[in-house]
TrEMBL record:
<dbReference type="GO" id="GO:0046933">
    <property type="term" value="F:proton-transporting ATP synthase activity, rotational mechanism"/>
</dbReference>
<keyword id="KW-0813">Transport</keyword>
<keyword id="KW-0406">Ion transport</keyword>
<dbReference type="Pfam" id="PF00231">
    <property type="entry name" value="ATP-synt"/>
</dbReference>
<protein>
    <recommendedName>
        <fullName>ATP synthase gamma chain</fullName>
    </recommendedName>
</protein>
<dbReference type="InterPro" id="IPR035968">
    <property type="entry name" value="ATP_synth_F1_ATPase_gsu"/>
</dbReference>
<dbReference type="GO" id="GO:0045259">
    <property type="term" value="C:proton-transporting ATP synthase complex"/>
</dbReference>
<comment type="similarity">
    <text>Belongs to the ATPase gamma chain family.</text>
</comment>
<comment type="function">
    <text>Produces ATP from ADP in the presence of a proton gradient across the membrane. The gamma chain is believed to be important in regulating ATPase activity and the flow of protons through the CF(0) complex.</text>
</comment>
<keyword id="KW-0472">Membrane</keyword>
<keyword id="KW-0375">Hydrogen ion transport</keyword>
<keyword id="KW-0139">CF(1)</keyword>
<dbReference type="InterPro" id="IPR000131">
    <property type="entry name" value="ATP_synth_F1_gsu"/>
</dbReference>
<keyword id="KW-0066">ATP synthesis</keyword>
Length: 286
């Protein structure tokens, strides 16, 4: 390798380092913002849970209500990925979780163009409905077309990523239409560091408890669909942060290697010039 090539490689590494650092800064900023949105979504679901628990206490028969019995279509599967790359391995792990869960056949709904590419790569069916949802600034209006379809199904499985820590992000599967199961999961998530409430108060409900539960069920589906997208965004940002950190370490190693090669080439050039001078002196002394 010549000195010119090394200089070009060093310039490329500097540019790559700048891009990776920018991605890191953006990820940190967006993680803080997304966590705030998730906290608000959990608060809303918590309030819905309190109402539903009161309903179950007042109407014991409602405790056996699972899913939207009025819906006609059997099963929807929602796969949440992304529109852009550079998210580490989390998107592929979500997709692999989706592939492994093949016990039930259902209509596939896809969020993110990367998921479409993965379906083609793995030779899976291409008959999916793709929805364009922003990777960074997701709005509720982005989910409305998807929600319209999902409310027609008795069961909805969502394949997404959940943030555990900066180091750990895990693929998850949730059944959105099982309101009992979902609210139990939310209750478990709320247990840490809190005291559980005793039996909720009894109320008289108007309209009927069944109609209120149906309304709650729809709202829980909408809220938790949004929450799953936000959880995936948070996990993606954390995975990207981890990937960019690994890239910066690799860049640093490459820069050290290039500097070492540059010094060696300069040293070889200096030695060559010294040998030429000595050879010239010997020649003129003869």
């Amino acid at each position: 390798m010549q000195t010119k090539d090394i200089v070009e490689d060093q310039k490329f590494m500097v540019v790559l380092q700048t891009i990776a650092t920018a991605y890191q800064d953006i990820s940190v900023m967006k993680m803080k913002e997304t966590r705030s949105f998730i906290d608000h979504a959990r608060l809303f679901v918590s309030m819905l849970r309190d109402i539903f628990e009161s309903l179950k206490y007042s109407h014991p028969l409602l405790s056996r209500l699972e899913g939207k019995t009025s819906a006609k279509k059997p099963l929807a599967k929602v796969l949440i990925t992304a529109n852009t790359k550079f998210h580490g391995d989390i998107l592929r792990r979500i997709f692999e979780t989706f592939l492994k869960d093949n016990k039930e056949e259902g209509d596939v709904f896809l969020i993110g163009k990367i998921g479409k590419d993965l379906l083609r790569e793995y030779g899976q069916k291409d008959e999916v409905k793709l929805f364009d949802v922003s990777d960074i600034n997701m709005k509720m209006s982005d989910l409305k077309p998807l929600i319209y379809y999902l409310l027609q199904y008795k069961k909805i499985y969502v394949y997404y990523a959940k943030f555990k820590s900066i180091v750990t992000q895990n693929p998850e599967v949730s059944e959105l239409t099982n309101i009992n199961k979902l609210l139990e999961e939310e209750l478990e998530a709320e247990k840490e560091g809190q005291n559980l409430k005793e039996a909720p108060p009894t109320y008289l409900f108007e309209p009927s408890g069944e109609k209120i539960v149906s309304f709650l069920n729809n709202n829980v589906i909408v809220s938790l669909m949004r929450q799953a997208v936000l959880e995936t965004q948070l996990a993606r940002f954390a995975s990207r942060l981890k990937a960019m950190d690994a890239l910066l370490v690799k860049i640093d190693e490459n820069m050290k290697s290039l500097h070492k090669q540059e010094r060696k080439i300069k040293h070889d050039i200096t030695n060559k010039k010294q040998l030429e001078r000595i050879s010239g002196m010997v020649f003129w002394q003869q």
